Amino acid sequence: MWTFAAKALLAGVMIAAIAELGRRLPTVAALVASLPLVSVLGMMFLWHAQPDAENMARHSAATFWYVLPSLPMFLVIPFLLRHAVPFWLALALGCVLTVALYGLMRLAAPRLGLPI
Predict the structure, then answer these.
(1) Helices first, then strands: H and E counts in the chain
(2) b/e per residue, 78-101, with b = 16+ CB within 10 A?
(3) Which residues are CB-neighbours of 41 under 8 A, at least 6 positions away?
(4) Residue 35 binned pLDDT confidence (cut-offs 50, 70, 90)
(5) Residue 54 CA to its chain's centroid (Å)
(6) Of 1, 38, 66, 95, whose Cβ has the fewest other Cβ atoms within 10 Å?
(7) Where are its TM segments located (predicted)?
(8) Considering Cα of 8, then 10, then 71, then 116, what sign does the dihedral take?
(9) Cα separation of 102 and 66, whole Å?
């Protein structure tokens, strides 16, 4: 239980630090947020819990394929904001798009032979 709490605290601190940095230096915060910190930490914790190279290889490959459907959100949100769509609606639409693209990825992956 303590390990879970430490992981959650670390994730919360990372998010808070990026948000605070974003108030002063939005581009630098975007760079930090784009780093695969969550993925790297997740792989470290997974390896610690289950040091299995094949499991880690599957996890890493699947992470790559799941990043792709999330990328359009980062183009749709600024487009909507620049066209006077309110922030919360733009964010929601970006998230809905991402969920839809995740669903399409899950459907297409077996047909394309992707390891997810």
Answers:
(1) 6, 0
(2) eebeeeebeeeebbeebeebbeeb
(3) 7, 10, 11
(4) confident
(5) 22
(6) 1
(7) 29-49, 61-81, 87-105
(8) negative
(9) 7
Residue with tokens 């819990």: 49
Dihedral over alpha carbons 89, 98, 32, 63 (to 10 degrees):
160
Q: How far apart are CA 20 and CA 28, in angstroms?
A: 11
For the segment 50-98, what is each residue's pLDDT rounded down to a tens digit? 999 999 999 999 889 999 999 999 999 999 999 999 999 999 999 999 9
Of the candidates 63, 73, 24, which has an alpha carbon nearest to the alpha carbon of residue 41? 63
Tokens at 7, concatenated: 């992981």
Structure tokens at 57: 């290889």
Q: How many CA atoms lie within 13 A of 12 on its CB side?
A: 6
Contact 38, 45 (CB under 8 A): no
Place of tokens 């930490």: 41
